[in-house]
């Protein structure tokens, strides 16, 4: 379990992102960390390097960096492509339980973990789909339904964008968590159909040696 100092640092950093963590939220993050480490002994959710409390907390902070950039509307709908261990959507939902989130994960064991996690954390507005995103693009319950699509560690923007656009409402955003190669990825995209690059924001959290770019692509008519 995280130490008192780790928890206090987490709260302080979240405060700098505009997030006030309640005791209940902290308890949920601690339960998340414990369950992730337990399941990671059996299935590969995070790397061996990341399978310790300080690194998991870093993933939490990384996921929550969205709040530094974007003011999510009440009752927003969110789709997480390739949710894996639950980053970034589960931390987002812990902080904002009004958001209706759909997590897409093609690997069965990871989808089982996400299902268990949502039950343990009592996150009522989360649904898990054990499918490939490519198979869901024309699903009538998912097509053009979402205000926000998030993608972390899902490949290059030129591949993520066409995968994401069918799920977004007009005016909706794809928010891709990217590293320092984001400018090169933007240059590789070429001509965009039905969407535009809205922003690419640099977020640095020195306390955790975390440097992140959030690339926002808006769906347009």
Keywords:
Rossmann fold, 7-stranded mixed beta sheet, alpha/beta, 8 helices, 221 residues, 24% strand
Structural notes for this entry:
It is a single chain. The chain has 8 helices and 7 strands. A 7-stranded mixed sheet has the order 3-2-1-4-5-7-6, sandwiched between helices. The mean pLDDT is 94. It has a single domain, classed as Rossmann fold.
Can you give me a brief rundown of this structure?
The chain has 221 residues and is an alpha/beta fold. It has eight helices and seven strands.
Write down the secondary-structure element order: HHHHEHEHEEHEHEE
Number of helices: 8
Instruction: State mean pLDDT (0 to 100 scale).
Output: 94
CATH superfamily: Vaccinia Virus protein VP39
Q: What is the terminal-to-terminal distance?
A: 48 Å
Which residue ranges are poorly predicted, with pLDDT under 50 across at least 5 consecutive positions? Answer: none
Number of strands: 7
In angstroms, what is the radius of gyration? 17 Å
Q: In total, how many domains does the architecture comprise?
A: 1
| Main structural class | alpha/beta
**CATH fold description:** Rossmann fold
Main-sheet strand order equals 3-2-1-4-5-7-6
**Helix percentage:** 25-40%
Largest sheet: 7 strands, mixed
* Apparent shape: globular
Topology:
Layout: H1 4-16, H2 23-40, H3 53-64, H4 66-69, E1 77-81, H5 89-95, E2 100-104, H6 108-120, E3 126-129, E4 146-152, H7 157-164, E5 168-178, H8 182-189, E6 195-205, E7 210-219
Parallel strand pairs: 1-2, 1-4, 2-3, 4-5
Antiparallel strand pairs: 5-7, 6-7
Helix pairs in contact: 1-3
């Amino acid at each position: 379990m995280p130490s008192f100092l780790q928890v206090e640092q987490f709260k302080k950093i979240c405060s700098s992102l505009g997030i006030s963590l309640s005791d209940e939220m902290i308890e949920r993050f601690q339960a998340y960390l414990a369950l992730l480490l337990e399941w990671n002994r059996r299935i590969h959710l995070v790397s061996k390097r990341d399978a310790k409390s300080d690194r998991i907390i870093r993933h939490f902070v990384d996921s929550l960096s969205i709040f530094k950039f974007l003011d999510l509307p009440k009752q927003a709908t969110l789709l997480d492509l390739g949710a894996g261990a639950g980053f970034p959507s589960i931390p987002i939902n812990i902080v904002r339980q009004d958001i209706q989130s759909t997590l897409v994960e093609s690997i069965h064991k990871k989808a089982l973990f996400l299902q268990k996690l949502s039950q343990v954390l009592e996150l009522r507005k989360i649904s898990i789909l054990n499918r490939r995103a490519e198979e869901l693009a024309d699903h009538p319950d998912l097509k053009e339904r979402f205000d926000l699509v998030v993608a972390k560690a899902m490949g290059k923007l030129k591949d993520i964008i066409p995968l994401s656009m069918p799920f977004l409402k007009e005016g909706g955003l794809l928010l891709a968590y990217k590293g320092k190669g984001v400018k090169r990825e933007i240059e590789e995209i070429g001509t965009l159909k039905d969407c535009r690059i809205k922003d690419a924001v640099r977020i640095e959290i020195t306390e955790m040696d975390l440097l992140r770019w959030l690339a926002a692509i808006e769906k347009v008519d």
